Amino acid sequence: MTLVFFVTVTISETASVMASSAQPYHFGFKKSKNGELPSIAQEGFMNILQENGSIFLGDTEQKELYLTFDNGYENGYTGKVLDVLKAKKVPAAFFVTGHFVRDQPELLRRMSEEGHIIGNHSWSHPDMTTLSPEQIRTELDKVREAVANVTGQQEMSFVRPPRGIFSGKVLEACKQLGYTNVFWSAAYRDWETNRQQGGGHAYQQVMSQLHPGAVILLHSVSRDNAEALSSIIDDARKQGYIFKSLNELKVKIYR
Asked: Domain NodB homology: where (predicted)?
């Protein structure tokens, strides 16, 4: 005898689930202090990140760091950043927009040739929660194809939603396209080019937030970051930290 069970889902319940998946979030949190983890687990979107396999922390039992840069446009400092990374033998991920790809093919080629990850930051830097899955595909495909034309790199594995604005719908759309969504667990207000405060400021902001498994977000338009990067790397290593590539991130922590 076969038993068949039916589950009734009302229209209102379906609408509620759809609304929940489309709810926009901004990836914000209280910063790490004294090596403790930031407050990401308390911000109300942990389950959405976990359901979609997103990255914001590596192994918090290991003193590993992941250095990532957002490259919306070039402000004259990415070359210096690459010089430091090459000298220090540190891998990084650069999340690029269409503007950067069109404007800076030589820097893009250099990123690829020197072994860094080139990630997708969308073509036009929109709020992707306002886009359909088809529009999201177009935004990401245009970057991937343009990067391939410049560097020969045919695949892209990582995406960072512009401005850290996301929803379950956005993360799922990116995941369906073969991307891992990458957020961060250490960052500061470094993108305002008219509010740069010196390399010492950048150094203090980053070093005060270091914690095991940290994914660090920096913006390449920042003069402060370019000035501080060498000292950040040296002094993080003195504390026992190892810099790894996102391709080496084997343990994703959700807390």
From this structure: 63-244
Give the separation between CA 58 and CA 48, rounded to whole angstroms.
17
Reported as a single tens digit per residue, the pLDDT across 129-174 is 999 999 999 999 999 999 999 999 889 999 999 999 999 999 999 9
Could you tell me whether strands 158-159 and 180-181 are parallel, antiparallel, or unpaired per DSSP bridges? parallel
The secondary element (H helix, E strand) that includes residue 219 is strand 214-219
Residues 82-92 have a mean pLDDT of: 98
Confidence of residue 76 (pLDDT cuts 50, 70, 90): very high
Q: Is 211 a catalytic residue?
A: no
Around Cβ 248, how many Cβ atoms within 10 Å?
Answer: 12
Q: Which of 116, 125, 219, 224 is catalytic?
A: 219
Distance of CA 169 to the CA centre of its chain: 18
Strand pairing partners for 68? 93, 217
Q: Which of 145, 88, 125 is nearest to 221 (CA)?
A: 125
35: left (phi over 0), alpha (psi -120 to 50) or beta: left
Distance in angstroms (rounded) separating the CA atoms of residues 166 and 23: 8
Structure tokens at 186: 């250490």
Per-position b or e across 59-73, b if 16+ CB within 10 A of its CB? ebeebbbbbbbbbbe
User: Is-catalytic flag, 219?
Assistant: yes
CA distances in angstroms from 253 to 10, 16, 50, 55, 108, listed in the order given: 35, 28, 9, 8, 30
Give the residue carrying structure tokens 């977000």. Answer: 217
* Active-site annotation holder among 70, 116, 121, 190: 70
